[in-house]
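User: Structure please.
Assistant: Input sequence and predicted structure:
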Amino acid sequence: VQVVESGGGLVQAGGSLRLSCAASGSILWFRIMGWYRQAPGKERDVVATITSLWKTNYADSVKGRFTISRANAKNTVYLEMNNLKPEDAAVYYCKADIDGSEYWGQGTQVTVSS
């Protein structure tokens, strides 16, 4: 199984970005997929998750600004990020819990200029 993120980049504060994460390979079922982020010198923290039953969960710091969604019948999730703040800058990672195992993507950089 491979997990690949895309969509990071440089944006001004108040701007928007959309991240994508696609899981491919021999996949029977995914339980949960989610986005995590890690800023320099900090731990990797959860940003948002979505389950196979479409239940979503968000970190308090992004509620009302970020939206996680997934493509129906596809192992793809998105993270729509609006009103970005400098403190949102980090490497964003996608994690997929598939068939009882966890898979991480390589990460995509999000930079927010003030």
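The radius of gyration is 13 Å.
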